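Hi R.,

Here's the chain you asked about this morning:
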Amino acid sequence: MSDPLLTAVTQYARLHSNADGLATPPIPGLRMMYVDSPRGRLHSTYKPLVCLVLQGNKQLIVGKNEAVCSAGESIIVAADMPVIGQVTGASMTHPYVALAMEIDMGLVAEISAALPGTASGRTSTGDTLFVQPTEASVADCGLRLMRLIDRPQAQQALLPGLRRELHYWLLAGPHGARLSDLAAPQGHAARLGRAVGFLRTNYSSRVSIEELAALAAMSLTAFHRHFKTLTSLSPGQYQKRLRLIEARRQMLYEGSSASDAAFKVGYESVSQFTREYGRMFGAPPGRDKRSAHMQVIQNRLNGIDNERKRA
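And the predicted structure, written out as tokens:
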């Protein structure tokens, strides 16, 4: 394994990944995936990010867009989006390994304002998923972020500048103009982002469409139209997805029962929660939880076996 970024991410994520293969180091906005066999579809909601696929293959469905990303390529998701991901290329000897870094659209707008010529002048909000060859400058930022994981003092001193550098290189890349457009403060995407951010914070509460439209400074008709164009979902469907994803996280990683998780995320009926959970994740809550626990056990056994082989 000669690629230093692949080596660093593999070594960390192999030891710290959860049942879904996700590892979250103590650096906000940084996460990794390590999966040693093809998996079923995983539903999640992404904040804007760039994901560097270092080994293996993954299929992504973001809104109406679909893409397959392979080693040496990067995925940019440029808005708060519901995402369906499926690892399609992974094995014990060549696991799927990826590094994701969140994008701060406010920082994109700030840097873009100081860089003449980055905006394209387009206003459509339909395309928010991009795949491109991983640029050396972006991979270098990823490697230097990895080196900060166990150095909290260095994080405090270096992280702000490193994040700013990452955003500059993304703006300087092939999709920089589109990123700039999506980050424009008065553009549809940025205005919708305020409403989506409110939904993320208040997913367990009843939120009126009028309140969301006001946050986006749009009429009800325009808000519905632009929200669905951006996310492929209605606001109600988006909130339901947030609730189900959070309920699953609480069940799998905090030990909550299905009924406790359902009520915590805002459901009033456990039977309704169970039906909607099964439709989204392909299995009722109890069976999904048992399968995830078995996956954790299998991952640990595979890890032990790999360590023995390396020894």
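Residues 234 and 290 are 31 Å apart (CA to CA).

Let me know if you need anything else.
M.
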